[in-house]
Specification:
This protein is an alpha/beta fold. It has 2 domains: 69-282, Aldehyde Dehydrogenase, Chain A, domain 1 (3-Layer(aba) Sandwich); 287-482, Aldehyde Dehydrogenase, Chain A, domain 2, CATH 3.40.309. The chain contains 16 helices and 24 strands. Strands 14-17-18-13-12-20-21 form a 7-stranded mixed beta sheet, with helices on both faces. Strand 1 (31-34) and strand 2 (37-40) form a beta hairpin. Helix 3 (113-124) packs across helix 4, helix 4 (128-156) packs parallel to helix 5 and helix 10 (297-309) packs across helix 11 (326-341). The longest helix is centred in the N-terminal third of the chain and has 29 residues, at 128-156. It is globular and about 80 Å long.
Amino acid sequence: MSTLVASPKPIFDQIHLSRDLLPQQEYTRPRYLLEGKVQTWAGEASEVASPIFIDGQRFVLGREPKLTQEAALEALRSATRAYSQGRGFWPTLPVSERIRAVEHLVRRMRALREEAVRLLMWEIAKTRLDAETEFDRTIRYMEDTVHALKEIDRAGSRFVVESGFVAMIRRSPLGVSLCMGPFNYPLNETFGLLIPALLMGNTVIFKPPRFGVLIYQLLLEPFAECFPPGVLNSVSGDGETVIGPLMRGGEIDILAFIGSARVGALLKSAHPRPNRLRSVLGLGAKNAAIVLADADLDLAADECTAGAFSYNGQRCTAIKILFAQRQVAEECAARLAARVEALPLGLPWEPEVRITPLAEPGKPEWLRSLVEAAGSQGARVINRGGGASERSLYYPAVLYPASTNMEICSVEQFGPVLPIVPFDDPGEVLDWMAASSVGQQCSIFGRDPRAVADLIDPLVNQVCRVNLNSQCQRGPDTFPFGGRKDSAEGTLSVSDALRVFSIRSLVAGKATEGNQALLSRLVSERLSSFVSTDFIF
């Protein structure tokens, strides 16, 4: 492996704290949401420390509660009471009223934008631009989800007459949902589970991710204000202490989790009635980019740099391995390395910064071990400064030539390291994709329609999205977002999420005069929330 030519500039030694940079609220009181009230936790709590070092130490931002098993079970009892086997206030509430509650939450959240952005910068070192984008995208997602639900409800607010039967077919909730999002998008991904679950009439227990927890301390009052008691409850602390008992009791109806496949499997296996459990899982990925010999190499280098190193590569949709046809592999690697060398690194609030500290303690050391192992097998770090680190900061490393027998080519690195593997026959890449245990997305860079088509047709049977001459990504949120194999269970998008958190139910009867008169009165006298032809504007 090549010797590092240059190390990244030190970024922590010159920080001068300014009140204008810090979060403006205090987060020293550990709090959680239970039965519609913001509770202060008097028990054990954990320090929430930033990956940003001040005077040689991680800067402490606040504290989060470490709930006990009994406290977690009380949250479950609260959610179960609120659902009340489908007879509770929230699941029987008209769709229009549930929409009104979420629209109220949107208004409350807009006023908290700047504080939320600061928390994302300090707790998970997301750049200001990325933090602002995540917040704004979450608001837009909520608005789009409300719009999609209105469309679904309008389609269901009519009677269907078929073969002598009259029926109304609509979507109804499933029960108590446990929602857990990841640290890399602690607001957007968690809300991508929580909001559709609530809108469809389920009650929810949510656990903030390991990092990115304080943004939920900020949102506790809006949650309490917008939703009835028990409809939304929070738990935090050690997963085995607070999540294990929730699953083992069998009262969770929906498991909505984005994280590792290992944890997802453990959670599912803990449930005593798996046939009852609806699972919505976003798990691991090892998304590949395939650069063909006729590809536009500048375009490929631009897209793959963004795809592999945006937010330090800490995205499930990140490009985590690049296959380049041998005729262009060396040139492709050189162009990509040059672009990576130009990525500005520093602190999240600094203008134009692209590479920031890593949120997970010990992550730079683990990445270094992967790079060193690849180096012992013949790969080289080809970008200046690649693989150097300063405390929680790890400078991106481009490895070339890599081979698929290296650990870096099989594990999900979830960090700023990209191996580039030269290949001769595209069949080699297809074999690797078929043997992989995950299957979320891939990218193809090329201009020959026949060569691209020869890859598309087998790849759509291995992954859920093939990106043409562009990086792997989730958006737009109206597109399906899913995965094959161990990458996911269930499909998320604005409309798909509403469907996955609900089930089709119908009220039907023979189209007799008596039934027609009965249904007419149910509608005209507004006696039922389900049997209703109200049009939601």
